[in-house]
Amino acid sequence: MKPIKVTAQKVEQALQDVPATVEVVSGEQIELRQIDSLEQLGKQLNGVSIGSYTGSQPRIFIRGIGDLTDLKNKRVAVYVDGVPQLDAAMQDVLLGGGVGRVEVLKGPQGTLYGRNALAGVINIVTKRPDDHAISVSAGWGQRHAKRLTFNAQSGVFDDRLRFGLDAGVMEGDGVLKNVANGSQGKLDAYERRNMGFKLEADASVDTQLRLTARHFNDRTPAYTQTVIDPQSLRPIKVRSFAQAGDLNFYEVERNLEGGTRTRGRALTFQISHDFGGVKLNATTAWQRSKQEMRTDADYSADPVFFYNFDPYTNDHRQLSQEVQLVGKHDKLDWQAGLYAYRDQTLNTNRFGNSLGTQYQDTRYQTSGWAGFGQLDYRLAPQWTLVAGVRYQKDRQRFTDVYKNKPEISQQDTSTTYKLAANYEWRPDNVVFLNVATGYTPGGVNTSPQMVNSSPTGPYLTYGHETSRSVELGMKGVLQDPALSYAVSLYQTRIHDQQLMVLPDTQIKNVGRTRYHGLELELGYQFARNWSLSAGYALNRSKVQESYESAAIGKSVPLAPLYTAKLGLQYQGQVAKGTRLTARLDWNRTGRFYANSANSYGQRSYDLVDMSARLDFKQWWLKLNVNNLFNKRYYQMVAPHPFIASMGQAIYGQPRSVMLTAGASF
Prior knowledge:
Blueprint: E1 5-6, E2 13-14, E3 22-26, H1 27-32, H2 38-42, E4 48-52, E5 58-62, E6 65-66, E7 76-80, E8 83-84, E9 99-106, H3 110-113, E10 120-126, E11 133-141, E12 145-156, E13 161-172, E14 177-178, E15 183-184, E16 190-202, E17 207-220, E18 226-228, E19 236-239, E20 242-246, E21 251-252, E22 259-274, E23 278-296, E24 307-329, E25 332-353, E26 356-380, E27 383-400, E28 408-426, E29 429-440, E30 443-444, E31 461-462, E32 465-478, E33 482-501, E34 506-525, E35 530-545, E36 562-575, E37 578-589, E38 592-593, E39 601-602, E40 605-615, E41 619-626, E42 634-639, E43 647-651, E44 656-664
Parallel strand pairs: 7-10, 14-21
Antiparallel strand pairs: 1-2, 3-9, 4-5, 5-6, 7-8, 9-10, 11-12, 11-44, 12-13, 13-16, 14-15, 16-17, 17-22, 18-43, 19-20, 22-23, 23-24, 24-25, 25-26, 26-27, 27-28, 28-29, 29-32, 30-31, 32-33, 33-34, 34-35, 35-36, 36-37, 37-40, 38-39, 40-41, 41-44, 42-43
């Protein structure tokens, strides 16, 4: 099996040299399985669940730790080519075929990645322009689905100047029926456009420059939830806070359908210079995204009580700078760096409800800086010790512009660390132990405190939360048989946990939780053309402190108790000049609880996906079938935001079939 190179520790190294659990999805697998979003990626990963709660803003859970409410201070960091995506709207860049690999770092990564890496990091690495080729593809599928991609890369001046261009378009109708007006497939219809450009130059033997530009324009569903009965989990209608009849699966009620339109662009400049023994890497990045959402936020067509976003707008800008020095001296590898950022989000919202129309105009600004370093010391030929530390300072400021209220701010400082040991008990096989900490900064609630069911209270601040994890693992590659494996045991504790407190609807530091679990991943090539992959992740959590007495001792909601996966792949020549790659994947998601009292939730479910690709001399044909057996399930179940006796759920996607043809020149 080929060795895997990663940049999980911000330097390129073999996967076995990283003393932590890192799961890698290659660009070839992303293309074969036609993974176009983070939500689809999450179904292929061990112990990771990713949902789309508001259309274009993914909610990510790693080892049971993630977010459902606060999109500004997330617990899982997403990086694209070394740039943190501070706003959730900029995280999804998988459409278009420009991704080389995705690395998922599990457990706290506060030392190298800083804020928002309390649970882990998703590190997306795009392809580099290292070839002379043009490729195009076109796909057609159910429910008027269409998918087009274009990729080109080349070089001039003996390839000292290289460039690459990738673009993708995907659109189609949805499956939901709005029984309030009879529309079919309109509420969850989608249209996504993504384009990326990359320019690389070798200014000298020791200096490399890279410029990357991205642009996207998406039209995605907004809130697609249905109201459910918590006991039977069946979808229901609601009138005046009471059940008013049943709905069929894939049916919803809306008096406003709406949708989400998100536009964004990003520019990144990177320079790398080798001084001879010490290498300088610098990354400067700018991003801007604007999102406008119109949606029915009470998930019903109740004419008496309704609550609509009409519209909800989010205008986000971000600027970041990181400078890193990397060196090697005898048995010591080291890196040190500085990082600084600032971003601003302008919200201008119009809320229409049964009591009238409310307006909101706010400004949320964050800024901060950090210094970090890490040492990797080869104590003996088989032993490597790792130590890292980071000091970070963050400030978050909130202003209610509409009500002309004074600015409210929250400032935090944090020191995170990592200690690890790697023992290579045979070539390419290691045992590792690490202790690491993570950090989520505090902030300001962007909605006033509810007083007597009315948002008339103050805007409250909340402090930072921290995590500490201990992990013991083993991973490696065996050539006879051709087997790759990774197994780990972990325990993570979160202190001063940020929780949404009802009925205040305010985030407060009132929680303490323990997570522990087991993860196993195997890859086995049992014949020349056949390979098998398998994974299992068991996660147990226990709430040790909470503002809700009923939650103490219970499991944390919204995260599966376990996930399991099994994949079978064939790759070989079936005729002269014709190569077949076929893959069958089974994924099982274990039960997860919807509420803190663990009184109801989503049952376990199984999904089967199929992918097959025929490669000819210059063109190829591919078939993708997701949810092969058309399983009906909910991808998310949670309490209703307004009616305590009811729940809400998002339907999982039904079977989809797409046929794609492509060519390379």
